[in-house]
Amino acid sequence: MNFHVMTLFPEMIEQAMSVSITGRAMKAGHISVNAVNIRDYAQNKHNRVDDYPYGGGAGMVMQAAPVYRCYEDIVKKNGAARVVYLSPQGKVFSQEMAQEYAKEDNLIFLCGHYEGIDERVLEEIVTDYVSIGDYVLTGGELPALVMMDTIARLVPGVLNNEVSAQTESFSEHLLEYPQYTRPEEWHGKKVPPVLLSGNHKLLKEWYREQSVIRTAKNRPDLLEKAELTEKERHLAEQILQQKTE
Description:
40% helix, 16% strand, five-stranded parallel beta sheet, alpha/beta, 9 helices
């Protein structure tokens, strides 16, 4: 998986992605991150990429030409790819979307700043408008990092334990079950006995039950898409009823 980020702050992308799991994945060759400075494609003395908006209004707008030249250069070197523009106007990012993007060989992220980017270049190059939530940030770099981290985890070889990506939260529209480690008792609280049983069938059943319970308590909206057995749905309904009493 090759990530290409069109940004005014490439160092922000490079520093964040070069550590922890993504950093190890880069060194191992499972993913690559190419942060490209849009300012390098400005054709003026001060590498300026913004200007006043037509019609007036507060703030500045990023110009179309340097953004387009940056895009052209990436495509020329790497081939055509989906272009994700990080915008509050886009579809809200989800685990399902991450799974879809993880199938791509190349992804281009366009990070806006100021009051946005000239609409004409967005119409020309953007294939996907994506938001990470209903709030406003100073730029697209943080949303791009969120997306790349989420997508990278799904690329084969990135996680040491491939089962992790299959069992963690949202994998089946359920939250992940609670986790415990040594010591067996801490502050008077003991590890659930089933986790010490070594019985894989019981463990699997417990994990699933706890996921249903957690989701019903904390994110009942996810249950609409989850595939539950009749027993699990009854359990979820009991918990939801208790919350309303």
